[in-house]
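Order emerges. As here.
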Amino acid sequence: MKLHVRHTTDYRYTEPLRYALQTLWLTPQSGPAQTVYFWSLGAPEKLFSQLDAFGNPIHSYTFVGQEADNVRWSLVNAAGDVETLGVAEFTDAANLPHPDFFLRATHLAQPDPVLAEFGRRFVTTSAIRGQADLGMLLALSQGVAGAVSYQKNSTSVTTTALEAFKAGAGVCQDQAHVMVAICRGLGIPARYVSGYFYAANEPDLASHAWVDVCLDVASRRWVSIDVTHSCLIDERHVRLAMGTDYNACPPAKGVRQGGGKETMTVDITIQPV
């Protein structure tokens, strides 16, 4: 499926903005699951590009206001055409972090005995170290989706996996964090993935999150699972970035001086072409 994605982030400020440094994880790459035909990224100042530690393309810009300036608005635009291939299993490149790196605990996806106990209902640890059963992982994703029901605006970007699990509600980010934390607690490398999801009847999921789980550590074999829909990723998914949790690959992250109170409006549209 060929999809046209448009992602606009509109920032408004109650006072003049004096300084801003922002990094963007808003550029998809071609890979086993997709081919990027065209992509553009626009920001208030010149963008500088590089790869982060996880191989994600990132772009940064710096804004410096002058005393006479009265800048109270900024805009970030991303848009392009991506052909999705529906490939869920893949092998990591040798230059990416070893799968065992993704066993490490992170703030938003911290392993916990409560989560591990829940995970053992669905996953039996393999007798062969470093291997995981796909059927069990899919069953786990279904269990997580049931235990953490999707409820818009029920959490924030700072909500941890354990908090969402105990609350029994969250959004796709929380469901992904719970899945990652459970896998790590069971000794299975797992990581967080940000991206887009096309569904004409689910516009709230246009900005989406899912997980990569390692099937075989020795061969660096991974599988991408959409916990919200309890399925392997397919042609509806556009992959943006991956990391240890949301904090490692948010759409945007930065610091600023001035500006007073900030209001951010995000608009994402995805259409077949």
